[in-house]
Amino acid sequence: MSDFTSEFWNIYVAGLTILSIIACLVLLWISGTTKVNPAADNTTGHVWDGDLREMNNPLPRWWVYLFVITVIFAFLYGALYPTFGKYKGLLGWTSTGQHAAEVQKVEAAIAPIYAKFDGMSPEQVAGNAQAMAIGERLFMNYCAQCHGSDARGAKSFPNLTDGDWLGGSDHAYIKNTIAQGRTGVMPPMAAAVGGPEDVRNVANYVLSLSGSPHDSVRASQGKVKFAACAACHGQDGKGMQAIGAPNLTDGVWLHGWGEEAIIKAVNNGYNNAMPAQAALLNEAQINVLASYVWGMSNKPAAAN
């Protein structure tokens, strides 16, 4: 990457830009001073379509003036704005600065709307119709791509309406997750469990924990091998919410149900990530969005 961040490219871009503008002036000067010896009828001798002849008339003055004005504008624009390599321009304009200014303007405009929710408890916000309408729009813009428009998720994307939470379920946890993101990791466990048959046996034992269809003989053999998984999922398979280890007894399957799906998880593990949204949403927006998400699985009473 250092090849693309050296000083050479700044000089190259600046030089190419300046030379291009100068070349336009040179081209105009050449076209205005070059003499052509026309025929007696003031034509150049070029003929198209049988009778279409090229006249030797000078460029219209208005066109020449417009061309010169365009070149002057290019130099003025380059002086005011960052055009020539690393030169920042007299106005000091940057796209980052303009974006930040526009974001500030928008946040100032919406601040009074969110101010009414300050000091309200999550239950009160989740029961406020206006707050939930705002939360729904935020969810559609920033969350629905993964969790679905109905928030019921999909394979490998959690359902936010069922109350089955891996790392926590209160408003503070949801708010922090939206702001900072979350990474969920299950390491490959095949080597710790044993060979392929041991992995299959463990998969059947895991199925038995939730009362799912399974091979009882394999499940009994897999119970001992499940000790390798108990460090995270617990001896009873009910998981540990503090570390985000799922409950294997409740019949909720984030990455797919069935023997083959569990074998795949044991063999390959998983590394899922929810991106942080703090760079896109301000504190007030995150608070309302967290209340909206919390409300989908807690169903607060509507405010009067």
From TrEMBL:
Heme c 2 binds at residues 186, 229, 232-233. Binds 2 heme C groups per subunit. Heme c 1 binds at residues 143, 146-147, 274. The keyword ATP-binding does not apply. The chain crosses the membrane at residues 12-30, 62-81. SUPFAM superfamilies: Cytochrome c (SSF46626). Pfam families: Cytochrome_CBB3 (PF13442), FixP_N (PF14715). The keyword Zinc-finger does not apply. Its cofactor is heme c. Gene3D superfamilies: 6.10.280.130, Cytochrome c-like domain. GO terms for molecular function: electron transfer activity; heme binding; iron ion binding; oxidoreductase activity. It comes from the Bacteria. Coiled coil: none annotated. One of its GO terms (cellular component) is plasma membrane. It is found in: Cell inner membrane. Pathway: Energy metabolism; oxidative phosphorylation. Keywords: Cell inner membrane, Cell membrane, Electron transport, Heme, Hydrogen ion transport, Ion transport, Iron, Membrane, Metal-binding, Oxidoreductase, Repeat, Respiratory chain, Transmembrane, Transmembrane helix, Transport. Its main location: membrane. GO terms for biological process: oxidative phosphorylation; proton transmembrane transport. Residues 130-210, 217-297 form the Cytochrome c domain. Component of the cbb3-type cytochrome c oxidase. C-type cytochrome. Part of the cbb3-type cytochrome c oxidase complex. Belongs to the CcoP / FixP family. This is Cbb3-type cytochrome c oxidase subunit.
